[in-house]
Amino acid sequence: MYGADELPGVLSRAKAAGVSTILAIGIGEGPAEMHHALEIAESTSSPDLPIIFASAGIHPQEAARVDEEALARLSELAARPRCIAVGEIGLDYYHVENPEPEIQKRAFVAQMEIAARVRKPILIHCRTSELATPAAKQKFGTADAFEDVLALVGEHWAPLGVGGIMHCFSGTMEQARRSLELGFYISMAGNVTYPAASGIREAAKTVPADRILVETDAPFLAPIPYRGQRNESALMVHTAQFLAELRGMTAEELAARTTENFRRLFPSMTATDN
Ligand SMILES: [Zn+2]
User: N or C: which end of the chain has fewer CB within 10 A?
Assistant: First the structure.
């Protein structure tokens, strides 16, 4: 998403904006690129830049590319200390090009098994099916991505007690409640600031302070007043500011809570902190 030459600028702007730690999402454009974020995390160490951790995972849109070799590579990446989570994994019935639900479910379960072996939290990508394109609705019929995610997580993940994140949460209050029950944290991206997102805001208000997180979803979903531009870590503070106001707290309080939540969810991070 950023050229290698842009990375130093992105990282120093983040540090200047007050972002001290980044979890870089390692999905790339498919399994062949899922190691990139981890390599950046492993090779970045400077007091002038944020501390970077990474995830690795195969996004549901790439589920058709999940084979034994890809899963073996993911197992290797997931075991490395700087890799603190497996994801984005999950289900997405939003686009007609997305793989059949059975293929997506198999890829999702296989990756939860890898995460279970290393006992690292999972990052769930799930776009609600109500908003799917008309062609996708025809293809996927009555299948509901969120219902299917919750069912699979309930069976294959929640009993472990390792937890995870509902990333870029865009569901309802009820879906947030059920995710919390399964041990998940709810992470809000820049779309919470968009005027039409009243449902997301309702959910964002009700998530307990010890379960909320903020993120960019960069390069997408830049918060207002940067909507439509390429998103980057520095802009996350606008989402945090907005969320703090929405919840009737100061930005400093929210930052303290989200930092505390992040550290609680990722205990393996403290061990490799430097
Ligand atoms: Zn996602």
Answer: C
Cα(167) to centroid of ligand 1, in Å?
Answer: 6
**Structural domain includes residue 2:** no
**At 28, which CATH number?**
3.20.20.140
154 is in which domain, residue-wise?
7-272
Q: How far is the CA of 83 from the centre of ligand 1 (A)?
A: 18
167, part of any domain: yes
Is residue 1 in a domain?
Answer: no
230 burial class (0-12, 13-18, 19+ CB within 10 angstroms)? middle
Position 274 scores a pLDDT of 43
How remote is the CA of residue 168 from the centroid of ligand 1, in Å?
6
Q: How many domains does the structure of the chain reveal?
A: 1
Question: Structure tokens of 43?
Answer: 């090779």
Give me ligand 1 centre to Cα 144, in Å.
16
Distance from the alpha carbon of residue 32 to the mean position of ligand 1, in angstroms:
18
Q: Report the percentage of the chain scoring pLDDT > 70.
A: 98
Which residues sit opposite 233 in a β-bridge?
none
Going from the Cα of 146 to the center of ligand 1, the distance in angstroms, rounded, reads 13
Among 141, 264, 172, 155, residue whose Cα is nearest residue 212: 264
pTM of the full predicted structure? 0.95
